[in-house]
Design brief:
With 173 residues, this protein is an alpha+beta fold. It has helices spanning 21-27, 31-36, 45-63, 108-122, 138-146, and strands at residues 6-7, 11-15, 67-72, 77-85, 93-99, 128-133, 150-155, 164-170.
């Protein structure tokens, strides 16, 4: 099955595959990932491969969208991920993003998330996008608001005890 890829002026986004295992291993162990998203117990290449195969690819095969590796066109560097997620404990589809520290603060998060937001509404038929973030993650909150999402409350995910900020955006009809 062929899955969609997306482009912006500076970026290419393609579904995460096992070929991205070394990159995913690095990303999931950055200080901000661990602080704001949490330890996924991905500490080896084998762990990263298993994580991709069990956490990312099943949703891609089921819904046609999931997590995308964000690649900078100018040098083909894998700089982050951006995705549309069917998360346990959340109603609807959730947008999320994470970047390696060297690529933060350069507009790549907005550029990739805005493109996926368009795809969600125009290509995948999604009518509402949600998002969650920690109360301390001001950069994520600002990016979600720049994308047009508004905080609508808080939520606690299954098997977790941290209260997260909950954001929503409805597709214009």
């Amino acid at each position: 099955m062929i899955f969609k890829t997306f482009e912006t002026e500076r970026l290419r986004m393609q579904p995460v595959t096992v070929a991205d295992a070394a990159f995913i291993l690095e990303l999931l162990n950055t200080p901000k990932w661990l602080q704001h998203i949490g330890d996924r117990n991905v500490h080896t290449l084998v762990d990263a491969t298993n994580y991709i195969q069990t956490k990312m690819q099943p949703q891609l095969e089921r819904l046609g969208f999931s997590n995308y590796t964000v690649i900078r066109k100018s040098d083909n560097a894998k700089i982050g991920t951006c995705g549309l997620y069917d998360r346990e404990g959340l109603e609807g589809i959730d947008i999320g993003f994470a970047f390696l520290p060297a690529y933060e603060g350069k507009g790549y998060g907005f550029e990739s998330a805005n493109r996926l937001k368009q795809a969600a509404f125009q290509e995948f038929g999604i009518t509402t996008i949600g998002a969650i973030t920690t109360k301390e993650n001001m950069a994520s909150q600002k990016l979600l608001e720049k994308l047009g999402l508004q905080q609508v409350g808080t939520t606690i995910l299954p098997n977790d005890n941290e209260e997260l900020l909950l954001y929503k955006l409805e597709r214009d009809s």
